[in-house]
Amino acid sequence: MTSPESCAMFEQLSNVPFAPEETVMGRVRTKPQARVDVVDSTRVPVQQKFVRGLEQMNASLVERDDENFLALTGMLAQEHVLFVGEPGVAKSLVADIAKEFVVGASRRVVHCCKDTTRAMAFGPIDVAAIKDGHQKRVLTGGAADAHILVLEEVFKAGPAVLDMFLLVMNERRYEEGVFSAKVPLKLLIGTSNEWSPDGCEAALAAFFDRFLFRKHVQPVTNAGLRVLLRKAVANDPCRPDFDDYVTLDEIERAHTEAMQLPVTDGAKLALWKIIEGLAADGIKPGNRRVMKAVKAARAAAYLACAAEVRPEHLDVLRHVLWVDPQEQPLRCAKIVSRIANPTGAIVQEKVGQIAEIVDGIKGKLEAIEAVSKLEQIEKDLQALPAVPARETALRLLREGFKTAHYRAIGAKQDGE
Questions:
Q1: Which runs of consecutive H residues, i.e. helices, occur in 187-247?
Q2: I need a labelling partner for 298 at 20 to 30 A (CA). Which of 2, 50, 125, 357 fits?
Q3: How many CA atoms are closer than 13 Å to the CA of 8, on its beta-carbon side?
Q4: Counting beta carbons within 10 angstroms of the beta carbon of residue 32, is it exposed (0 to 12), middle (13 to 18) or buried (19 or more)?
Q5: Residue 43, CA distances (Å) to 218, 220, 255, 297 in order
Q6: Is residue 211 within 8 Å of residue 82, measured between CB atoms?
Q7: Does the pTM exceed 0.85?
Q8: Residue 114: phi, psi to the nearest 5?
């Protein structure tokens, strides 16, 4: 079988030219200065809003670049996003910030529990209509009236309520008996502390399939935790002060533009190889999910300011093409990254090395050795194409340099 073409470089969201700003262990260290990509002049205004919004979300939230990217990619694709992780990892914060990024929209949050009823989620029965012999529900103000909807602890709602959302999420319609109404939904973000809560097994497969993007949200690293503590000391709420917002009309326009992006032959070949690689590993997503994977790639390319879908834009499919949440997400990510984004796979390896080096710093001697190792990783990262993951790795690297500096002089870092 012919090997896939080498992945082309992402259109840069930002570059990281360095200028001296701080000294670590007697050596000049630098902070990245964001620079918009050369394609900035070709961005349509609404696209620029999405790109800038993502940049501000990434700058405000600690180690949540992937989650921010998925929230806005879902908005562009008009497909839904599921975040699963232990309490306190900013699942709801990402969803809330994405919700606030849209103005002029009906924004609803439903806190689900085992006692959640249709009336609680969608609205009460229309008593006046019953008197006239009709069965209707007052949807105003409920989940079926929302443009942007957040379902907190979604699987605790139980199968009966989850079934009501299936048609809402896919066909954008609410139906109950003979009553039917159009739903204006643009994006639904679900959050949960667990993948397979008791009592939802029967409805889980169908409901999972309605979320095109699904991600396990991990706690921040030790370096990220130090940043969070510094933000807490500074009373930083970890919320972006957006320069601008998007309207419903702009979401629709951006969606149309994104879905019209051409797909290169290299991306088509890479997608097919991903499907084959997943099948060989026992991962077989349904036909609808595979078809919608193209929507996901187009939205990702649009958010990367690309004029076409190239192989590297398929990297988002690591959050799309798996089926079983227990083992397959990691295997899927490895297969997708190997084919679509080998640079991203290298970056992830470097991130792991940074964490290992920083965790091993106990005193001055280890700090000096760590600086040398971190400098080599910095050179390796700078030699890579400017993919978004590289910027995240460079931020972690700078935190590593700071930790080494504090350990070398015997001082305590904020948060210790």
A1: 201-210, 222-233
A2: 2
A3: 16
A4: middle
A5: 33, 33, 14, 18
A6: yes
A7: no
A8: -65, -20
Per residue in 133-170, pLDDT tens? Answer: 677 888 999 999 999 999 999 988 877 788 889 999 99
Residue-wise pLDDT tens digits, 82-112: 999 999 999 999 999 999 999 999 999 999 9
- Pick from 298, 371, 397: which is nearest to 76 by CA? 298
What residues contact 319, with CB distance under 8 A and at least 6 apart? Answer: 66, 70, 213, 214, 215, 329
Task: Give the residue carrying structure tokens 């609803």.
Answer: 108
pLDDT digits over 251-288, tens only? Answer: 999 999 999 999 999 999 999 999 999 999 999 999 99
Buried b (16+ CB within 10 A) or exposed e, 194-226: ebebeebeebbeebbbbbbbbbebeebbebbeb
**Max Cα distance, the chain (Å):** 83
Dist CA 308 CA 263 (whole Å): 6
